[in-house]
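Hi R.,

As promised, here are both runs. First protein below:
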Amino acid sequence: MSSIYFDNQLPISEPGSVRCVAWSKGEETPLLAIAEGSCVRIFREEGEELEDYKQQGRVACTALCWHPVSKVLCAGWEDGSITFTGPQSGGAREDREVHRDAQILCICFNPQGSRCITTDMNGVVGVWKTDHKGMLSQMCHYRKNGSHDKVIFRTMTANGEPSLENPPFFFGGELGVIYLADDFGLCSERNKIGSPLMMLEYYHQKDMVVVITKSAILVQFTLDAEGKVVNESKQKLECGPNPEKFQGVWAGQGLLASSSQESIVRMWNLHDDESYIMSLHSVDDKTTLAGDKVTSLDFNPRKRVLACGTRGGRVVQWRCSTLHGTPKSEANWQVLPVVSATDCAIDRVTWGPGESLLHIKTERNNIILSEAQLNTTVCPPYLAVQTAPTQVLLYHLERASRTVISPGFRVRGLSIGGNFVMVWNQKQITVHEMEGHGLGVSVHSSFKRETAPIVAAVLIVQGMDKQIAIATGAKIEFTNLQGFVHRSIQFSQDVEGCPLCLDVNGHFLVASTTMNVIRVWNVSKTKEVLKGNPRKFVSNSTDKSLGEIRSLRVNSDGTKISLMVDQRLAPGGLHSGNSTLRVPDSRVFVYDTEADCFLNYNVGRSRVPMAHSWDCTDNRLLACEVVPQALCYSGTDELAPSVPASPQPSPTSGKALRKGLAAAAAEEEPVHCVMTLFVASFERDGSDRILLQDSIPCADPGVGGAARMPVALVVPHIYFARQLGDLASTQGQNPETVSAEQEGALKEGTGAMITKTVLRDFVGLEHVDEHTKKALLDFSYHLACGDTDQAYKSVKGVQSTGIWESMSKMCVKTGRLDVAQQCLGQMGHARAAGALRACCEPEADAKLAVVAVQLDMIEDAELLLKKCKRWDLLNQLYQACGEWDKALEIAQTKDRVHLKPTHFAYAQHLEAVEDVQQALAHFEHSGTYRTESPRLLCSLGLTDDLAAYVEASEDPQLHRWYAQYLESKADLEGAAREYRKAADWLSLCRVACFNKELEQAQKICEETQDHAACYHLARHLEAEGRIKEAIHFFQMAGRVSHALRLAQEHQFDGDLMSLALSSDPASMAQSAKYYEQRGQPAKAVVLYQKAGCQKRALELCFSARLFDALRKISDDLSADSDPEVLAKCAEFFMQHNQHEKAVHLLSMSNQYDKAVDLCMEHDVQITEDMAERMTPEKNCMDAIARAEILQRMAKLCKKQGSFQLACKKFTQAGDKLKAMKSLLQSGDTEKIIFFAGTARQPDIYVLAGNYLQSLDWHNEPEIMKSIIQFYSKAKAHDKLAAFYDACAQVEIDEYRDYEKAGGALRESLKYLAKAVGTNAESDQRVQNLQQRIGLVESFAGIRKLAKSDPAEMVSVCEKMAEMPDIETAVRIGDIFAQLVEHYAETQNFPEAHRAVETMRRKNIVLTPYVDQALLETIYSAVGQQAPVQEGAPAPGAVVRGGGGG
């Protein structure tokens, strides 16, 4: 069913004065507001004006915006006033204060409609609180420089949370400054672009502001949590020659569509930072849009369609074909038919609410385009087709006569009953009566329904009873033909919804509601009778909704109802609520009223069913119009277990072509077609299924593939309607192909013509009687069901041979091989039956192709072989038909394995027709030209042509064949010439030898080095007794054995050695034996060794005492050599005191004990390589014996000073302690630390710690850390305590840092207590250490007393100096140095002098404690000579410092 746009012209007196338009937001009762000068008018979708809400202002209206959730219109005026009015407002409201005397530029509501933003020319931005009734109150306003005409709401927070309730908003304008404000009076500048704004948009998913300026700069930025601009980017846009005419709109998530009076639309993918274009030139093939330019554009997010108005008055549309993510390229957009809307340039296109309304503004008019489907109806013998908004074509099926009905109003629906045809729209119904044989039509009755709009209507004629069923509101009314209501059926709006669709077929009426409830009535009685219970359109098992019904049809007996369905989907492809995308479902649903279940059939990928109808007499046959559409829903909701969701193959044989049709429907390129379906009932399992019967393309092959619309299924035909425009174009292009019927349609101005196509199963049987027609229909039905027996029974009584032949052809088309066999038998076609029995191919399609060939259905056979991909059989078919070009093409592209046989067969064909040149060419392609081409030329006696053919060829084999041919003719000179061209040196040498030209033969062999030629010449020379030359050419031929044979036979010992060395091992061994017999052992040993006979070579060395040769042999020995040979060599080297060599050989022979003993006995220095060779493998001997060998080796290495090697062997022997002791002797600190860390034994930790203490650990922090770590791991608390004690002493002696020393002593005390155990408190060592800690900490605290209590400090120092055991903890020199420092700082030099003298009396060396300069100062102050100190001052020995280091 095609769609058509109704153009509703709006009664605008001055279209040029229209400044702004706005569509209401809700789908229900869409309204369009238009500002015409100083008047605001509101129109319905049909173009009717709502006079009650017309506003007449004093000045021009400059801005319009509808409330997002109610029918309330906000208008802004040139004098700054704001008005609220509309059908759902509580009354007209107006405000003039906020924008006093300033033109309103922009009005914008937030998503929930609770806030309204208004801006004006003076830079004032007003914020209003609003509700769904139009109540408003001012909340705040802002005044900024410049005018602001762009406002967007920030509906996402910085942390990614949606903010739909009172979100903040951005605004900007001519100064290029963008502000962020809210309704609490907070407003701040966020970005300064520097150029006037042409577009300000908000990318919700990324919380990003998108700006396009008049200088064609695209700016993107986001705000962080503090409101600062981040992630800002700028790029120059390519806007064509007219950037000032730029228009842009969102066309999907992160996708911006723009145009600037060009023939292309530019798409900017902000998500991926990519762009692409969509061109008007690629819309159609007729170049009707050549030179046209895009002047305006708008995107419908519900329909996912981008509409573009052009300069030529056309509307071009692209539908987004993906539900997931952002369209990546122009391939994701499907072109829709172009709509010619007007004859002047379109200034603006604006989508209305929903999916079918589009407003077009031009300088001459304002138009509302409303998309609707063309209507068809059939009731044999009459057919009615809507061809235009106000025109209906009435057609008589039997007489092929036609007439046009023009009811005078836009038609919304058609219905035929008896001799009456009814047309209707929302307000009016007209009934026409057909009279006479000339298809005369007169108006029978007409009436209007002004009170409630007509949603659907059907005409019901049962004999003499005629009535009309009208769906209006929540009821169906039954009226007579004059419109008088007899009775009505009421619906519950809350439970069932309001009736939406009606259909009648025979005695049955069906209705569906807005809540997708289906009801069926039998209307054959005086009063309609409800059949079954109302049924919701939900899944049989889950009660989940299966979609929204958009159309339904009932079959002739009321048992099946077909449904066309839409799905409500979110942009991601998931089911959602009403405010989402409405997508057609690619499935046809059928409701079985008797089984109370829903069946479905998927029409294929990227296809949707658009219209459907049942056959008027057969209740099983359903026709469905299918159109290509990329955006469709193909989900598989769960249905009843007995209902397959896709076509099921036949349970018996012969399913090939029908299954192939189903596969084609899913895989091939989508095309506009009609699918005929059988709704089949299977008695075996009690289930119902929908089966594909045939698929008929809608393109008319008779007129160059012109588009046509299927309108009716009346067996045995499907009727199509083709538009008059297509007829006219066809007639202009090819007048001789236009039929008389087409010419009549053009002359009568019927708008379209009706054509018909015979159903596949009735080809050649269009005029059979009703009984045969029914039998054929049953035959086709049972074939589709896979019931061969019933199919045969249904036509068993038919006696016509022509009918059986037609059924045989039908079986080929439907893929029923089994039935085809029976039909061939009924026909008596013995040849076809025999060919079928002889066919052994595994594929059923291949066997069907055999039948098709026998029935002269060559094209069908070709299709069948293509479908089963039997390219070899297709190749044979083309060859049998003489279509050699096709055969070669198939062989080249699909059947490569038979490419050469195909060329060969074609060459034979050409040979038969005496096309010699082409035959030669194809013999070459087949690869048989080396034999076939000469055979062909010789058989025809064309010897000269043969010579020329060979001469022109560069193929060696062909030249060899010709040379043999010439040689057979005794033309040896010519043969030699051809042999040379073929590079057949053997034959050339053979000819030379035959001619006794031995020098020429030798020259050939020397130049070519051809082995075969050299061998032939050598045999010839041997026969002539020229042995030396024969040996040479045998060697050149690679036949060294023959050369050795001759050299031995003739005792050429000088040549024999060189020949033997270049021969194989067997020949070498034979030659070595020869030399051994000749008493030349040295040469024999060399050859035996080269031949791999080492044992024999060694025996010969030992017997002949060839020591040099023996050493060379031993160098080549390896672990893979014979152990006996290795042992003998080792013994030989031990006898001759070559111990290292012997050790090496003993190790290779696995005599590890003997090798170690030899090293120990003769003190052989063990290297790492030797040690590795003497180390037995783990699994080659007993572990204890292996450990003993390794221990002995390790001790020997340790004795030789190879400590690391000894460590390695001790480790391999499992004695890690000895390994550690050996490693300690090496002094390799890094390896000692590593080994201790991996050994994980307390004794080894202690050894490592002891060793590290011997190093300069107080200057190496890593060593100190390792010492502590090792002692801790070994739990050697006494060692750790002693180490910390040593650390404390170092701090005192080296750095005089008593604080650190105290800390170290406390650590020592902690570990000493652990070492002592539970009686730590009474242990003398612990007590002594505690006493030391007390003294050290006391002295460390003296320095702090020097500033706070100097007298106390002096007293404490003097007391400590008198303690007898003070030296165990504190150096007495440090005590006196502290006193000297204090006295010097306080200028008490006499006391300082006394302290120094006391140190001298106690024999304390002054150098480590008192600086020489300080001594001189003190002694100079008391008038004495400073004593001379011994040695240089110690590091850190400054009297001021107690902290060292």
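And here is the second one, sequence first, then its structure tokens:
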Amino acid sequence: MTSRPPMAVPQRQPQRTLSGSGLSQSPTHQRTLSQQFLPQSPIRKPDSYSEQAADLSDVAQGRFNTLPRRGGSRLKLELANDGIEHPGFSESPQNLDALSANKAFTPSRVMSMNDISDAGDMTPRTSRCQTADEDSVPLPMPPRRTRFVIPAKRPEPSSTSTNTPPKKDARPKPFILETPSIAPRYPNMGKPEPIGKTRNKDAATRACTDRCVGFADFYPWTGSHPEDQFSDSIIRHGFFDKSPAQSTQEPASAKAPLFPALKHKSGLHTLSTIFTGILNQRRHSGQITSPSTFKPPPRVTLTDTKREIWLKDLANPAISLRRLSRTIPHGIRGKVLLEQCLNKNVPTDRAVWLAKCVGANEIRAFKRKGVNGIFVMGGEAKWIRDWTVFVEQFVDSVTNAFSENDWKAKVTYAIRLATHLYAEHLLDRDHYMDWLVSGLENSNQAKLPMWLLIIQIYWKDILKLRRHGRRLIYYHPDRDILLPLATRLQHLVESLLATSPENFINPAIWLKYRDSVLESTVSSNKKPKSDAFKSIDSRNDYLTSSNAKSQPALRSIIVQLLDSIRRTPADSAIPKQLWKSSENRLSIVRTVLEWCTSLYRPGIAKVYIAASLLCSSSELDVDVTRAVLDFLDADPLQETARKQLVYHLVSELARSGHFSIPQYMQWLIARGGLSSPVETAREGPCATRLLVEIPLDLLNESMKNLRATLLRRASFSVEDEARDMAMAISCVKNALSVPLEPHDPLLHRKPLSLKKLTKRIELSSRSLKTAISSWLSNNFVTGFTQTMQSGKGGVELPKTAFETVRTLLEAAQDFTMLETVLKLTAASSNAELLACCVDTVNLHLPVFSATGAAKPLFQTFYGRLKVLLEEQGVGARPLLASLANLAPHLTGFEDVATQLRNDLIRIDRSSAADASSPLSDNMATQLQDAESELSEQIEKLASYTSADRPTMERLFYAIIKKLQVYWGKEDERQRLCCILLTRLRVFDLHHFNELMKGWVQHIRKLTNRPPIAQLFPPLISSGCLSLAILFATVPRTQNQTVQVQPSAIGSASIYRQEILQMLMMPFSPSAVMTSEDCYRFRIVQELAKYEYAKELMSLIHGALAEYSRNQQAAIQQPFDDKQTEEQFLELLRELVLADPNAASQTVSLKSPDPKLAALMETWTTRLLVPNGGGGQKSFEQVLELANEFTLPFCQVKLSLNLAIDESGGPEASEKLQSQFEQLSKALDNAIDANNIMWTGMLPSLSTEITQHMRNRAESRFLDIIPSLKNPPNDALFNKGIHMAENLLTVIDSIFRGGSGSKVSPLSSALVDKLADLWDILTSRADEYASLRSAVLSHWLPLLFSYLTLYTSPSASAIDMSKLPGGEIRGRALIALAGLVQELDNHPTSNLGKQAFDIALALVDSLPEETRLQCVRAVKDVTADPRLRYLFSFAPNPAEDLMLAHREKPAQGINDRRAMMGIGMGIGMIPERLSPFIFRRWEILNEPTPNVGENDTSLSLTLFDARKIK
């Protein structure tokens, strides 16, 4: 903005602006608001007066609560006050300043605090009431005044009595034209009223404001106004205040001169010439023709006193800046300048002026030092960076000074000043925005509101750049903040979702904070926000999924999730993730059924997991019955074990009501029913045999009759089936000592033992098992419960009867009924019975966790424990011990587990425990003298809180000595010794474990001893010997090399095999171990499979080494037992599923022992082919056997084959290379045969193998992609696409399955392929139409899927900017940017958005130097805002200005004719364009009284130019 010259002095000629295209002076016949309504000032202003200062004085002083001051004479103030109308006197909103309503912030005008900057609206707009002569020169197009309505005059109350009616004035009244209410009005400013303006009779009662208000363009007809005089000219051309010149008669019609020319055959050429001439004239008149002649105001050295006076004058808006510019003092710079402006309360525009003056001189100082241009630019950039740091420190220090009284005013000033400096590009914007975002990221809860207020000022600019905008997405860690602030944060997140979704495209951050954003979106309950969230979620999911959505890979993911559920069934998040893995629910259900019936997944828990998942699928509108029947129809299910699993699963689904038996029968009838006995045989088809296996108690009479009819057609006797069921129930009654019916035929037979009965039940049909289970639960156990609840004096369920019921239900594998029995038994007051119930839950924890009953049952028995502790005291110890063992295995009960363990130790140490212990009274009498003495000594220790170590060692070795005497003799006193050790253990757990560890190591070295299985199980079940101590005493192998002690002979040479056999074999009750002890030991055996998998793998490795070494020994080895071998295979199958990598390392032996290698080969082959024999399997055979379920076993087998061939020797390297070649050939053949199931085991192989295979697959994949130079063959087109998909699956498996360290930078060949596809899309030749279609439909999606491997969270976790290959990544981004723009021509495809998302993920790790190179490559060729956001660069509004160097025309040519030639587009004067250097720091509103030809500091209206690109 420039100062206006004093009134009555001719104004400076209007200048040209940067944004316009012509002169800014309006035509003479047009009237601006200032010309129409503002009077000429009767006074002359002095040169030192500053209109801008007066313009800002009211606002600046009003903001800091000081009295306003006005400059000028008294006459001027009176004239000015005549035109002021206070806003409070108007009923409608108004802006009395004709030029202040829409003042745009430009570098040529100092921005007032009410102006809107490009950084955003900082403060609310305030109304300013200023005189007209204080305003600056009006803009070329001033804003329209706000229309408002004159307040309606309210009727005054009559002074006469209301009882007297007023007299009606019957005299005729003259017509008075009333002013329309919507007519705009303006201050009269001393002018006479408009012609024709009439005054009402009650003018004396009007407010003074009516006398000085005129109405714009409203003249009532009186007959004397010029507009009321009609003439031929007025009728034809209209009325003008001032007639226009003849040469510019705009209202004249153009038809007469143009229509004849257009009718001529050269009319189009003539019209083109005219328009060309107009454009040439516009260009000629809109160019900058002279360089800048600006010189900043000089600085002088002043004393401190004069400097303070100068600063106070600067703070006074009444003192002109032109006067202050003559003596700008030295020494005010940097942070001192900002603090002085704050302390002196300098108006913002004047503070910015001072900063520009100082900065311009500082920057020009570099040019006076005589250095070259590079150093000048570097020094200028460094100075601006330092100045930006000063501004950041200034804002930070002011905002942190909370204790000051005027903190709010200072903070407002500091933020406003910094924002104005930012808006005028006087800061390093990149550094400043980085500081803003870093401050928000690192702010604590106290400073977060302030940072939110500050950063919202720059909100739009930050979101325009990727490198800063994406950092706003980090969710703040302080969640427990105040509700208003939390609400504000939620609104900001929602606004980001709607306006800047690109900032959320960051897979690693999105996965971390997705749930928090989802919670905020759901709480808002707005569909646009929900749609934005879904869009962002799908875009991030695309960057993380890659080719995993293909069907084979999807099945692998589902199987992996199912295996995870099997290992941790209590995790409720995995089933949700399973159903979200694909939209095709039926494919998920089919995979679940295959997984449930697979022989490669041992255990019965998988049936209940599958049943639970299928039941939950019904909520997703999945027809479970139809899915199961389709599965039976498609899969033949030849193996009997798989058929039994199907029958069990259908039984559970039918019980829950999710499998419709009538629909199944209808399906059978539709298929033709049953016609052959083979269809109902045990080995018959599963689809028809299922009719025999379904539970009968779920059928009504009509369904039973229909079933019997269908079965009779297949010669199946339903009557024999009923008799078998009745006989089975009679045998169960006999086992439970329940009286039989008098005519029962079992009375005349020898009753079956429980062991034989359980075996027969295991071999029975599913229908008979469910019949037995239903009778046990619904008749037997329920009868005891009803008797107890009725209060008729019934007895509780005996403990032995419960154990029998539990054994029978476990034989029937009906855990649903077992769960019902446990719930019914929970009401018992027998602590030992309840302890048996808790042990049952502990043993079958995976099953009960799958059904969701584990935690409810635990809570039920925990509640019973509290009741029994109050009623029985220490008598509840068995239940307490069982709950203490169960609680650690349940998630969410860690605190309860700790409490139970402490309570158990406290009870065991109390003296009261001895009274009820088995060693007292009747138990003590069974002990011999030595045992009685030991018991007495232990009872003495119970009175103390702790025992000294010598006494404890003496008692320990005394008990151990007795224990070794009874070892192997089936003497019940061996169990009593274990009980003594249990009582001794509680006094010092740590020291007892050390003593036990030493004794176990001693036992390991014994060469002549009884079997380990007769010594350790009672100690383990009683809690004296833990698995941790047992595994710690087993010798371990190092570096996978078998090291067997040569001195190990006799029993010591088979120690590992005995330990392994002990952990696998079942135990029956005996004199040493009761049924309770055997059950608890089963719990320990199951626990070892899950919590000690690594130790078991090491134990297996050593046991196999022992077995191989002792082949010629005379001692009987445990592995020679066939039952042990089968148990070992089941254990090894569990361990391989639990950790395939550890299992691969275990079996990958580097031992030269051929016997051990052959043994490993045989057993791993049996794992892979359960029904086949052992022997060597080649790579191709292993790959052929690979599928989703055999993958872990193929991995172990492949690792073993590679490890065996790595045996030592001079030809080791040659063998390794040969193996690589064989494996590569086998993989290539598998890919060609469309077999890619084996890809899941590639990441587990050695680094050399996986890297070799990855390089090979990537090379083949990139070679298949076509280019213009190498178009694809039409005959092999589909085959090439299919081959590329398979290769991509291989690459995806290696890349995502491996560790993050395997991530490598982009290859140059990949970038070349991107460029080739870009060239194909940009080609417009018809011969490439089919190729372009193939690229859009196949090749680009495949290549984008390959690129998403580099955007996955594992890849983004590595700082790629520190790795080599940044230039290649930059080239890839340039190619992606070109594809983004080219794909805009194909709006139906989603590839453009995918390419942009991939580029967003790749650019985050781009080195700074490479990013700047990309910016230089794209900024001159495109103005796409997406690419500006991608590479984080903002366009400089002045960088495209050009300076025109014109040559003078030849002498003798008439200037007017030359200009006419230019106007017609001919005879252009030669010109040369060069960049015009635009210096932000030199845009000053009051630099110097002297004005040059092109003084850019004076006014930007000098540049009435257009941008040339």
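A quick note on the second one: The longest helix spans residues 373-400. Let me know what you think.

Best,
J.
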